[in-house]
Amino acid sequence: MNQLSYGxxxxxxxxxxxxxxxxxxxxxxxxxxxRIIPGALTKSIMGRSHVPMLLFHDQKRPIGAWGKFNEGQDxxxxxxxxxxxxxxxxxxxxxxxxxxxxxxxIGYNPLIKRMQGKVRELVELAxxxxxxVTIPMNDRTLITNVKELLDGGNLPSVRExxxxxxxxxxxxxxLAAAIAAKATPHLRGEPEAKADDLAEFLxxxxx
Length: 207
Hints:
Layout: E1 2-3, E2 8-13, E3 18-25, E4 34-36, H1 42-45, E5 51-55, E6 58-71, E7 75-82, H2 87-97, E8 103-116, E9 119-133, H3 139-151, H4 158-169, H5 173-183, H6 195-206
Parallel strand pairs: 4-9, 5-9
Antiparallel strand pairs: 1-8, 2-3, 2-8, 3-7, 5-6, 6-7, 8-9
Helix pairs in contact: 3-4, 4-5
């Protein structure tokens, strides 16, 4: 069974164990050079009443089930319920609520795939499970968060900006860290930081 090499974010969780989030994204290339084509999971979720919810893709650690699926052009949104009467479910819920398990990741088998240059395009997948994981959020989600912060007049943290530079800008880890360090006075946590200052910094960087 294959797994995505990064996780997608948990959007909502409550005390009763309800949980919702994005389980898979379409169109962008992951860190393993895979791209899921829109509609790749359509047949797999059709008519299914539930998909197992695991912890870290471990089949010996089930923690609940996913029961609602909404597939769009950008990916697969899911809703489910953590089994709060189990110790594993209670622990997973506490960790997810504390942001220690911020991501979702799918376990799947590729049924139809093709190569597009160095990228493996996944045309049709058999979905086996959706796990809660500690892996960072999907690149696209991070990029969206940074853009939303700027649009709202707010600022990303140094870590968010560094990851944004690596994932959206293609900078190496060391170069992204160096640029983020230079931008630190313009980022969240600095007393004089302003969103328009960061925007001007980005403009200067592009130039």
